[in-house]
From TrEMBL:
This is Oxidoreductase. The keyword Oxidoreductase applies. Residues 15-316 form the NADP-dependent oxidoreductase domain. It comes from Limimaricola cinnabarinus LL-001. It holds the Pfam family Aldo_ket_red. GO terms for cellular component: cytosol. GO terms for molecular function: oxidoreductase activity. CDD domains: AKR_PsAKR. InterPro entries: AKR (IPR020471), AKR_Detox_Biosynth (IPR050523), Aldo/ket_reductase_CS (IPR018170), NAD(P)_OxRdtase_dom_sf (IPR036812), NADP_OxRdtase_dom (IPR023210). The keyword Aminoacyl-tRNA synthetase does not apply. PANTHER family: NADH-SPECIFIC METHYLGLYOXAL REDUCTASE-RELATED (PTHR43364), OXIDOREDUCTASE (PTHR43364:SF18).
Length: 341
């Protein structure tokens, strides 16, 4: 297992993170679509992850209505002091006028709930789950800064922000002198490379780390889906995130060829591609079965050569969009020189 520095901080995280969205006792909420683990399997997955070198675990207040946090806390037990916990706020399953969002009221209320459910007195990485259009960023940043100063939170992160929202949040934090976001958690996979348009350039320029969710596009890149017929799974019930299946099956064809040559699984190669991409700090892996997790953990051992990366890059390439298809202008470039000569 490799460890990478988290953005502009002094914190080091494993290149794989265990995601706990499937941690649930009864299969409620979104976990029900993927298959709930129950406490015994959840603890086993935490054990396997720690044995493999993982040092960070990702959850959220909304996962299984808080049950995921409770189960993660129990699974870590006395090992919590040596591990990193990342959780999130903003989304809730209740509908009160002040329940959703990142107001000071919500931030202070939700952190206390997460601390209680996790059985800890601090959260290592507290992440804003989505951009709140109704709360001024200043209010959210000052509330999060207070949590850091109180010692309830060590670092703060954001999730599912657009590039301009990340840039605005970072610039405003610098202006206010508050704690800066250390990381961005976003969707990124061979079947969904939109992150490369704005978010990856933004976080690399600003010095934020990244956590990648749904790296297998909710199982589409697991190897069980083919042109000849799609296996039963979560995508049969809920096709999210959306994928272009025509291009997606072309991607799977190349993944299968590389996997066969390396005696690896299709999923391992898809995860390894992400681990080789610039701007990626840690890839979140989750599972509903022990064997799935064991297979995913093996991605750390897969080395992809330049030719293999190029083949995967080519088959999964994004279609050019404005202004990305315009030439980049730099002083010294021949095009720039000709136009200004």
């Amino acid at each position: 297992m490799k460890y990478k520095q988290l953005g502009h901080t002094g914190l080091y995280v494993s290149e794989l993170t265990l995601g706990t969205m499937t941690f649930d006792d009864e299969g409620g909420s979104y976990a029900g679509l993927m298959g709930a683990t129950g406490q015994d399997l959840a603890t086993r997955m935490v054990d396997l992850s720690i044995e493999a070198g993982i040092n960070i675990f990702d959850t959220a207040n909304v996962y299984s209505s808080g049950v995921s946090e409770e189960m993660l806390g129990r699974a870590l037990g006395g090992r919590r002091k040596d591990m990193l916990i990342a959780t999130k706020l903003a989304s809730t399953l209740t509908t009160g006028p002040n329940d959703f969002g990142t107001s000071r009221l919500a931030v202070m209320r939700e952190v206390e709930g997460s601390l209680s459910r996790l059985g800890t007195d601090y959260i290592d990485l507290y992440q804003v789950h989505s951009f709140d259009y109704t709360t001024p960023l200043e209010e959210t940043l000052r509330a999060l800064d207070d949590l850091v100063r109180q010692g309830k939170v060590r670092y703060i992160g954001l999730s599912n922000f657009a590039g301009w929202q990340i840039a605005k949040a970072d610039g405003l934090a610098r202006q206010l002198g508050t704690e800066r976001f250390a990381s961005a958690q976003s969707y990124y996979s061979l079947a969904g490379r939109e992150l490369e348009r704005d978010v990856i350039p933004a976080v690399r320029d600003l010095g934020l780390g990244t956590f990648i969710w749904s790296p297998l596009a909710s199982g589409f890149l697991s190897g069980k889906y083919t042109r000849n017929g799609e296996a039963a799974g979560r995508r049969a019930k809920f096709e999210f995130p959306p994928v272009d299946k025509d291009q997606g099956f072309d991607i799977i064809d190349v993944l299968a060829q590389i996997a066969e040559a390396k005696t690896a699984s299709v999923a391992q190669v898809a995860l390894a591609w992400l681990l080789h991409k610039p701007g990626v700090t840690s890839v979140i892996v989750g599972a509903r079965k022990e064997e799935q997790l064991i297979d995913n953990l093996g991605a750390s051992d897969i080395a992809l050569g330049d030719d293999e990366m190029a083949r995967l890059d080519e088959v999964s390439a994004l279609k050019p969009e404005y202004p990305g298809y315009l030439p980049q202008m730099r002083r010294g470039d021949s095009l720039f020189a000709r136009r200004n000569g």
